[in-house]
Amino acid sequence: MTSSSPTLRVAIVGAGPAGIYAGNLLAGAVAALEGRVEIDLFESLPAPYGLIRYGVAPDHPRIKGIVNSLHEMLDAFPAASDDEPAATRRTIRFIGNVEVGRDISLDELRERYHAVILATGAIRDAALDVPGVDLPGSYGAADFVAWFDGHPDVARTWPLDASSVAVIGNGNVALDVARVLAKHAVDLRTTEVPDNVLEGLESSNATDVHVFGRRGPADIKFTPIELRELGEVNDVDIVLYDEDFDGVDPAAASTNQLKVMLRTLNGWRERPQTGASRRLHLHFWHAPVEITGEDRVAGIRFERTAPGPEGSLVRTGEIREYPIQAVYRAVGYYGTQVARAPFDPARGVVPNEGGRVIDEPGLYATGWIKRGPVGLIGHTKSDALETISNLVADAQAGLLTPPAEADDVLAVLDERETEYTTWDGWLALDAHERHLGENHAHTRERVKVVPREEQVAVSRDGALVR
User: Fold this and answer.
1) CATH second-level architecture of 7-123+334-420?
2) Fewer CB atoms inside 10 Å of the end CB: C or N, the chain?
């Protein structure tokens, strides 16, 4: 900070966990900055929380705790007052339904703030380069997750006519997709799943869901709780294949978490089948080769793999084919680019060193757009700490250029008639969704409002009457 500019103004692009953690840490650093900190948190959706709201299956009870934690972070910072002591002056404003690069440019933000932090995450599916990947019936897992989470920018319906389905991937997203496909819709009625999703899942023809991983059971990327939830799904048998477990010793697992998961898998192998109406198959050592079919997906072909030297994977030449009618690709996410921001298309990230965007003073990155789409919430926190520590150090060293424009960004958005939403607007939408849940035929904590225009209307009207 410089003596001529006692207020540090920072824009954060993205209001998922990465952006909220960064804002919270920066607001907490106000004493070190010896001045006021004003933070504007921009989000392209009308509501906050990013992938926590739109990227995680609705039947995860622990997600409620994460949302509550993020809510408390944002709700803790009312608008700063000039009468407030300098050492505690800070504010975070949520500005939703504003896409940077469409409603306002990155250059315009940089003219109005000392620093801009990119926290856009990764919402697109990573590519799977095999023949047939573009056939009808081949879907990205991220798109399916967005549908069952009620994302406003995806179709309201989803084709669920396939009886046999393949899910490619060995991470938590693959398990989410497989569990939702295998689960009976009646068992989701108490969650916040939107009504259009319930209706779609109730008409699903799925009887067999196959999850395929390139590596073996000792290399799974699940977490124990995600795996354990599979075994608790009503009227679904878990099917495992003994050949995939040759040489796998839970006692030799590299971590305690892996030991727990291998014991869980072995327990399922010994559990007798119940004759359930649906089955969830877990396959290992399968590398996808081709999605087959003419007018739409009719099957999928794999090559068996085996462990190679020094942790490598080798192809065995053995080909196996499975008749299926739909494929869901859960092989990772790809970073969300911001127009006019540096971007590495090979890695899907913003090139940076410790969160400082390379050759762009005053521009920072945090979360998945910084490090790539790996890691859990805990990694996002440590990511944000590194980025904010470097931003604060730059501010203390006087390396941040003062804003060239003094006008409030909201005045710019008002002039353009952008229907932005606010924190008060989110509180109104949150209350509205909870009210819908209380009055639903199947009582729920909330029922998500899906259409963007309806979210915006409830948010803006509700905020005006508060």
Assistant:
1) 3-Layer(aba) Sandwich (3.40)
2) C
Let me know: does 399 contact 154? Beta carbons within 8 Å. no
- The answer on pLDDT for 165 being more than 70 is yes
Q: Give the Cα separation of 84 and 296 in Å (integer).
A: 64
Helices marked H in 231-345 — which ranges?
256-270
CATH topology of domain 127-331: FAD/NAD(P)-binding domain (3.50.50)
3-state secondary structure at position 73: helix
d(CA 241, CA 384): 42
Domain boundaries for CATH 3.50.50.60 within the chain: 127-331
Phi, psi of 444 (to 5 degrees): -135, 165
Per-residue pLDDT at 466 exceeds 70: no
- Classify each residue of 422-440 as buried b or exposed e, where b means 16 or more C-beta atoms within 10 Å of its C-beta: bbbbbbbbbebbeebbeee
Tell me the pLDDT tens digit for each residue of 332-354. 888 999 999 999 999 999 999 99
Residue 387 C-alpha from the chain's centroid: 20
Closest CA to 106 of 92, 98, 116: 116
